[in-house]
Structure formats: structure tokens, C-alpha cells
Predict the structure of Aminoglycoside phosphotransferase domain-containing protein.
Amino acid sequence: MSNPKPREPHPAREDGCFAVTPERKYYIRGNAFIKRSLRPKEFITNWKGKTHVPRLRKELLMNEAAALRFIRQHTDIPVPDIYCGFEDDDASYLISQNIDGVNMSDLKDETQKAAAHVELEKHLAKLKGIKSKRLGGPSGIVIPPYHGEDYVFCHGDCSQHNVIVDPETLRIKAIVDWEYAGFFQAWRLSFHFTCARHHRLRWARRRTIRWSCWNF
């Protein structure tokens, strides 16, 4: 599955954790790909002594789970299977299928990238064909600003490192990392196949539960 590139390593990298960002820890256990939010004691402090407090730690993972279910139900776009999501010890977890392959960004030959890009554009066209009069994520968690126009389903962060490719056939095996997915303006499906993330989202307030399995 896509290997997020950590901006700086975190000292508390336990067994099985292959990457850490200021928002997440990532693990591979057998056929499972695990991402979880950082616990407060793991928040990263920069050289100025300022601690980065991740926003929407639970909600983004919930939105990704809902988006993956939605995509499987309405399209044939390849995405990982979702196994479960839960909360434990002040951290939110999302466990999905681990996808073998390479990131599209790691393809060395530009002709190989071009071949994968042709298929990717077809998948993005399928997303553009899914329309709604309601803004936001498929689960209703996201409540972004009102713009008064038709909305199409956007990935939200569909850059090359979130596209997993078979290095032999160059076929796309999965598009991953749907945390920011939802119904937004069509122009967000840009040439660089990424939806703008600089528009801040407002999320519905939800009660935090120490341990709660999500419905899948």
C-alpha cells in the first residue's frame, strides 16, 4: 500500500510501525494496513518548542472508511477492502487491506507513468460522474462551506503517491488515502489529479468514546 513519507521521524516508533507523520502512525501486519492517530503523548514538538496538535484525528479516518465503502458500492475503481475501525487508548484506528505494488511516484520511466496516468484519468472521470446536491463527505460527517452549485465526488488528495501500481503490468491496483473525499466543486478534479485541500472543512461535533467499533 502507499507508504506515506514522514516529514520527521518520531522517537516512539514501536515494532511494526514503518512511518510516522505529525498526524499518523502507519503499520503493516500480514495482509493488514493499519493507520492510527497519534496519542496526545506522541504529539510532535518542533525545535521552537511548539507542539503540533492534529485536527480531526477521529473524523478523518471515519470519513475515509465511509468513502471507501461508497466507492466500492458505486464504482469499479480499485480501492482497498476495509476490515474495521475503532478507538483505543485515545487513538483512532483504521485497518484495511494491504495492497502490494509501487507508488506511481516511484515509477522511474516517464512512459510508465504516462501509461498509468491514462488509466487514472478514466477512474477520475467515473468520480466526476457521481453527483450530489449535498456538499461534503458520503457519511455526512463533513460540513464544508456552501457554494451553491452542483457537486461531484472528489478524492481530495489523489497525488501520485496515493496511486498503487503493479510494476509489471502498470495497471492500477488501488487508489488509497481517501480521508478528504467527498462531494465538492468539479474544478477540484484538476489536471494534477488532486482536489484542493486549502479550503478548510468544518466538521460536525461528535462525542468521543474511549472504545467504539465503527459500523462497516
Residues 102-203 form one domain. Confidence is low (pLDDT under 50) at residues 6-10, 191-216. Residues 2 and 162 are 6 Å apart (CA to CA). The longest strand covers residues 82-88.
